[in-house]
Design brief:
It contains one helix and 27 strands. The protein is an all-beta fold.
Length: 301
């Protein structure tokens, strides 16, 4: 009987690198001449493609800070709020409120020490209306109600139903603009709702008292939102109007609230994940000595 031969150990070459990220800044084209508005930066790991297959990250959300700048001016540095997209992919957000005098804003992500993600940045342009002779100030606020009597900031279960109850106050209590005889409105005011920088609606209707509501969309019986921490941003656009020979404006305003969404469908999976973006199957062996170098498998950590 021939003697059994022991298999020689197989060696693999793995290139270990930090996972790249993408930073986006929303909303785009905000009119800061008409008051202050909140901008939200969203940091997501960039999907990695291996052998024709794309692997998004469902591991740990990016950690660190966002530095907001306009030209050479630093507007502020804000810590990231972690979360996951509705599809279970890692992401994180940070918001800042900016006023007039800026043509663009850049958000730069700086990873936390020891993070397995790389830095990235994104920008958005801002618009500025013509100078006006007079102006008024608006305020925007909102509360959140749900189907279970849970108070903000939660946590709210993903199976919950969330409604944002919005209140906009303007001079003269005219939140929908002053468009009547002898008055010309150059724009119709809008109310927009964002979640983690993603537009949910830009057509929330207000009554004559500035009251409106928005119910978060659901999909397959669950909130169509990220799990983890979610930043709601409600923005009132303000408006301009002409009375006689004079131009006036009512400033824009906005408010950001952060809530927690608890999703039992995904929490168990997320707890088992790391920052590993790609985990490829065993590659084919090279011809020749099995103990020599094998084809490289790229792991983005």
């Amino acid at each position: 009987m021939p003697a059994l031969r022991h298999a020689r150990p197989v060696r693999f070459l793995a290139t270990i690198g930090k996972a790249p990220t993408t930073t986006a800044l929303n909303p785009t084209g905000a009119d800061t001449q008409q008051g202050s508005v909140s901008l939200t930066a969203t940091v997501t790991p960039t999907p990695v493609t291996v052998n024709g297959t794309t692997y998004p990250s469902n591991g740990t959300p990016p950690a660190g800070v966002i530095t907001f700048t306009s030209g050479t001016t630093t507007l502020g540095t804000v810590a990231l709020v972690p979360g996951f997209t509705p599809s279970g992919h890692a992401m994180a957000t940070a918001s800042i409120t900016v006023g007039a005098g800026h043509s663009s804003v850049t958000a730069t992500y700086t990873p936390a020490i020891g993070s397995n993600y790389t830095a990235s940045s994104g920008s958005t342009s801002l618009t500025s209306t013509i100078g006006l002779l007079g102006e008024g100030t608006s305020t925007t606020s909102f509360t959140i109600t749900d189907a279970n009597g849970i108070s903000s900031p939660g946590p709210y279960p993903a199976s919950d139903s969330l409604t944002l109850n919005i209140q906009v106050n303007t001079p003269g209590n005219t939140p929908n603009g002053e468009c009547f005889l002898f008055v010309f409105c150059s724009n119709t005011p809008t109310v927009s709702v964002y979640a983690n920088g993603i537009l949910l609606s830009n057509g929330v209707l207000l009554d004559t008292n500035g009251v409106g509501s928005f119910t978060v969309p659901r999909r397959n019986g669950y909130l169509n939102l990220a799990s983890g921490q979610v930043q709601f941003n409600v923005i009132y656009s303000g408006y301009e109007y002409q009375y006689g020979l004079s131009w006036y404006e009512v400033d824009a305003s906005s408010l950001v609230q952060t809530v927690t969404i608890s999703d039992d469908r995904t929490n168990a999976d997320f707890s088992l994940q790391t920052d590993t973006t790609v985990n490829q199957a065993t590659p084919a062996r090279l011809s020749g000595d099995a103990g020599h170098l094998q084809p490289a498998t790229h792991l983005a950590l």
